[in-house]
Design goal:
Helix content is about 40%, strand content about 20%. By secondary structure, the chain is α+β, with helices and mostly antiparallel strands.
């Protein structure tokens, strides 16, 4: 039997030196960027607001882990790439995670966090959506002149026996159909829904609640609602018109619309045949579907090339040149889709594996709140760095996942970061920015 030291690993030789390793490094962490998240959280008060919004039926005289600590632990872990509650079995002992949360002893266990999810109520998730809007309002030092609200839906695939699980033909899978509202890069709403419904269901109600909150804070702000053709519903459009809300919404193609533009398409076809160059026009006209109460302004983008014609339509109540409305305003709607991908892929907003529907909604909301925390890091600390426009995944890999040693004594907690980290200057700038009042 070989004579070896228990736990010692050998990795061969480098010249005359043997390469050995063991797990006796002491209090080390791979998440040195956690302290930046802690500072952002303290600045915007996110985990405190979330804890205040969630009901807590526990006996307050007997609890070990405060609600704020559990929320902060969950949000920080999501930002650092720990999507599963099982990860907290070891993460609760991480000295840097403990320091970031504000404790010196073990954090909440996986079962504790699981119980937090399973006791979620509809009032909880509604209150957390309100927190998203309040965080957005608080992020502005002065009232904005105009806001564009992007509304869109996506899918969350399901593979178990979740409540309200249904098959969706478009996505060709069993899934949920969450509804998102963004303003720029800020998420204002995340509503989990079953999938066998009209994609625009609840859209008018959600927009109404958001607009009410925004106008309470900023009575004079100009608000524009933007969405694809799936949200071209009379309930939403008429409400916008009654409330003096601007809208620019896609309009599904139909035979009547095609007849409206066939003259322009004929001219483009002749021009393409003569030049061989793809033709593009933006025009407008008045149109009313049978279900509409009156004609409305429709802007169309027409293209003709080797594949034939390719018209697109939008309906709007805004003034201005048709080209500006389509190219300058409506086409920017795609940015919201990138933000949805970031929340779902980078921050694990598709982890809906609980059996209870409301527990899954709370999970999705935690991902949305983690997105808000990362967005706060981008805006408050990284605005003047190379990571100012980076995705959450890029920020995690390049800034948060830093090797660190934690030294504790009765007077001080010292965090020793990797000396040769490539983004050391960005980290220093972010830390100094967050430290300033």
């Amino acid at each position: 039997m070989p004579n070896c030291t228990a736990g010692l690993m050998s990795f061969g030789r480098l010249g005359r030196c043997e390469i050995e390793a063991n797990f006796e490094g002491g209090a080390l962490s791979s998440d040195g960027g956690l302290m930046l998240l802690r500072q952002v959280d303290r600045r915007i008060g996110l985990s405190k607001a979330v804890a205040g919004a969630l009901h807590d039926p526990r006996n307050q005289e007997m609890i070990v882990h405060e609600m704020r600590d559990l929320v902060a632990q969950r949000l920080y872990a999501l930002c650092c790439g720990y999507e599963d509650l099982n990860d907290h079995a070891a993460l609760r002992r991480d000295p840097l995670m403990q320091t970031a949360v504000g404790r010196t002893e073990e954090l909440g266990s996986s079962p504790t966090l699981c119980r937090l999810e399973k006791r979620a109520t509809r009032a909880d998730v509604v209150a957390l959506n309100r927190v998203l809007v309040e965080q957005f309002i608080a992020s502005h030092a002065c009232p904005p002149k105009a806001l564009v609200l992007d509304i869109d839906a996506s899918d969350i695939p399901l593979h178990g026996d979740q409540e309200q699980k249904e098959f969706h033909a478009y996505y060709d899978s069993h899934c949920y159909l969450p509804l998102y509202v963004f303003c720029g890069k800020a998420m204002l709403a995340c509503v989990l829904r079953r999938s066998r419904i009209d994609g625009a269901r609840h859209a008018a109600a959600v927009i109404k609640l958001i607009v009410t909150c925004l106008r309470q804070a900023w009575p004079c702000v100009r608000i524009i609602v933007r969405g694809d053709s799936g949200f071209c519903r009379q309930r939403l459009i008429r409400w916008c018109e009654r409330q003096d809300i601007g809208y620019v919404i896609g309009l599904a193609r139909n035979a009547v619309l095609h007849r409206q533009v066939e003259g322009w398409e004929g001219l483009m076809e002749h021009a393409y045949a003569a030049t061989g160059t793809k033709q593009r026009l933006i025009r407008e006209f008045r149109y009313a579907a049978q279900s509409w109460d009156r004609p409305r302004r429709v802007v169309t983008r027409l293209e003709f090339g080797a594949q034939g014609s390719n018209p697109r339509f939008i309906v709007t109540n805004l003034e201005g040149m048709a080209t500006d409305l389509y190219d300058g305003l409506y086409c920017q709607r795609g940015e919201a889709e990138n933000r949805i991908k970031e929340a779902q892929l980078d921050l694990f907003g598709t982890r809906a594996s609980c059996q209870r529907f409301l527990a899954n909604w709370l999970r999705v909301m935690f991902s949305a709140l983690a997105y808000t925390l990362m967005q706060g890091l981008r805006e408050l600390a990284l605005a003047n760095t190379e990571l100012a426009k980076a995705s959450a995944a890029t920020i995690r890999v390049r800034l948060l996942k830093i090797g660190a040693a934690v030294l504790r004594n009765t007077r001080r907690i010292r965090i020793l970061l990797a000396s040769h980290h490539p983004l050391r200057d960005a980290y220093l700038m972010a830390a100094n920015t967050l430290a300033s009042p």
